[in-house]
Structures are given as structure tokens and as C-alpha cells.
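User: Good morning. I'm curious how magnesium ion would be positioned relative to this chain. Could you predict the structure with it bound?
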Amino acid sequence: MITREEISQLIKGYDLKKLAIATIGSHSALNIFKGAKEEGFRTVCICKEKDLIVYKKFPLVDEFIIVNDFTELLNDTVQEKLRKLNTVIIPHGSFTAYLSTEKLTDSFYVPMFGNRQLLHWEASREKQEEWLKRAGLRLPKTFASPEEIDTLTIAKLQGAKGGRGYFLANSPESFSKKVKEMIRRGLISKEDAAHIHLQEYVIGVNVYPHYFSSIIKDDVEFLGVDKRYESTVDAIGRVPAAEQLEINLNPTYTIVGNIPLTLRESLLPELLTMGDNVQKTAREIAPPGIIGPFCLETVITDKLEIYTFEISARIVAGTNVGVGTSPYAYLKYGEKMYTGRRIALEIREALKQKRLSDVVA
Ligand SMILES: Nc1ncnc2c1ncn2[C@@H]1O[C@H](COP(=O)(O)OP(=O)(O)O)[C@@H](O)[C@H]1O
Ligand SMILES: [Mg+2]
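Assistant: Good morning! Here's the predicted structure, ligand included:
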């Protein structure tokens, strides 16, 4: 595990007047680059040739590092280049999707905005659960084995991103039938089937609040909310029930985009408290806790009960709906505040106070 002291040492070799913000070209990169530009930083994009069009059409990048594969980020030459450019890396969803947590925590010698220790807590569903429970959040029930299924249950695959291959079952029998069916249709592998996580399926609407834990201001801010647009689950209502039965339609959860949301104001006290408590617990498990953005994935029922089923301790793609402005960021900051810019602002303030090593790890 790379220590905070080692990263502090790296920063000592930096020309802080030329500090640049870097990330992988995907996920929330436009959000991050725009924010960096608005706060006056240079930007560096680690990019695949085929994605260059995005960062040419939206010209927010000063320097490209072209790779064939994102794992090249771990190569000595790429790391060396990033350090030479005085970069702070902003991790997003593609980092853990393409690179192993171990590699990121043990062999990536570039200052990263955020708390590296928490990557391990995020990587495992069990550890996430422990964290969220300790923070006092309401979680869906989990089932240790298919025999225990006694209510509508969602079967999740290990390490799956974007919910591909997930399915629902209502009993041990329907579970075993569905698994076979999913394998037969090539939607999941036998290996996947052996590591399925079973969780009570909460009927309600999905709500994803975006928070920002500021180490500099010692506060948890509420910057926005989104909901997801998932294929096929959001399309199922367009097919009448009779035809759904005829074609044996199963919902899948492949994320296609995000939709901005504002909430009943009466939900805010609980959601704001949840954010504070998640950070308080994070500070206990891995000091100083979350540095920067985090997001909870929740389902809210018709009784207005908020169930949290996942946490991301980094920027999420849902915050892209806030670029320009989200109502909540506007309420706090006025115009033109959003997660990408909030990150850059935190780095800017840390620099001013000579506390950069407090926000990177
Ligand atoms: N307990 C649950 N109850 C209802 N819907 C859920 C539940 N867990 C997940 N979902 C739905 O499945 C999607 C993917 O699940 P998630 O746990 O976020 O997987 P991933 O690790 O792929 O992000 C969610 O965005 C949500 O729509
Ligand atoms: Mg998720």
C-alpha cells in the first residue's frame, strides 16, 4: 500500500504553480476537465485513440497521453510522464472498472485526489455493507443462500458494473430456474453463477444523491441528485404484461444515461444526515474519511423509506447532470458549480492553504 507520506514526498518534487488535473478519458472526464479549466488548471487526458473525438469536439484538454489500454496507466513511463506534468489524478468509475484495486493502491505512484484506503472498502460488497450499517443507514436484506429467498430478490454478479446480467427471483425454485436460463442464454457464466449476491429487491424509485466531503472546509455538501436510465428495466413498462409473459422478459440494468432530479424537501433532512454519518464512519475506518465526492445509491419506497444499496467514494457519472448547474449546487454556490468544478476548487483552496497533501493520497 502506497502511504500518504510517499505521496507527500512526490508532491514536494512538484512545481505547484503548474499543477495539472488528469484523468482517464471516459465516465465523467468532461465534467472533471471543465471544472479544472474553470478553476484555472491545465488538464491531461489519458485517452484511447477511438475516444479522441470526444475531447476534440469539446476542447478542454491541454495534453493527451494516448494508450491502447487503460492498464497502461500503471506503466512506469506513463506514471513518470504524469509526475513530470505535475498532475493530480482524479479517479472515477473507469479506474476501478479497468484497473485492479490492488494495483491502484500498491503500484500507482501519482498523487490521487481522494483517499486510497477507501478503495478497498468500496471494492467489496461485504465491506460496503459494514460501512453503511455502521453509519446507521437502512439497507435491503441480504440472503446468504438461495434457499433463504422469501421475497422478491435481486441477484447481483460479482464486480459487475452497470448491472449487466442481474436478474430477479421470488423463491429458491424460481432462482434456480432463472440461473439456468441466464446461463443458457449466455447472459452469465457458470463462474458468475457461483458468486451471486442475493439482496431483497426494494420496490420504489431509484434516487442517487451526490455529496462532497470537503476536508478543507470540514463539511459534507449536497450537490445534486440523479436517477438512472437503464436498459431494459426502464423499457419494460412500454411492453404490455401479456407480451412480457409471452417473450419471458427479464429486466436488465445496463446504464444508458442519467436524469437530473429534485426531491421533496421533506426527504432532505434524512438524506443530509445520511451523508454526514457516512463521512463520520469513513473517518473512523480510514482517516480522514472520504476526500471529495461520493454518492449513495438508494431506492425510496411509497412510505418514503430510503434504502441504500451501494456507495461510491468518488465522482459518479450521475453528477454529469449537474454540469452547468444543479439546483442544490446553485442553492449553495450560485451559478456554475458542479462536482467536477467542486473538485478543482478543493484543490485550489488546498493549494492556497499549503495543504495539498491533505486532499491527495
Ligand atoms: N436492492 C435493490 N432493490 C431494487 N433495485 C435494485 C436493488 N439493488 C440494485 N437495484 C437496481 O439494479 C441496478 C444495479 O445494481 P447495483 O448494485 O448498483 O450494481 P452495480 O454494482 O452494477 O452498480 C441499480 O441501479 C438499481 O436500478
Ligand atoms: Mg451501482
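The first strand starts at residue 20 and ends at 24. The pocket of adenosine-5'-diphosphate (ligand 1) is lined by residues 140, 154, 156, 160-163, 166, 199-202, 206, 228, 230, 253, 297, 299, 309-310 (CB under 6 Å).
Let me know if you'd like a different ligand tried.
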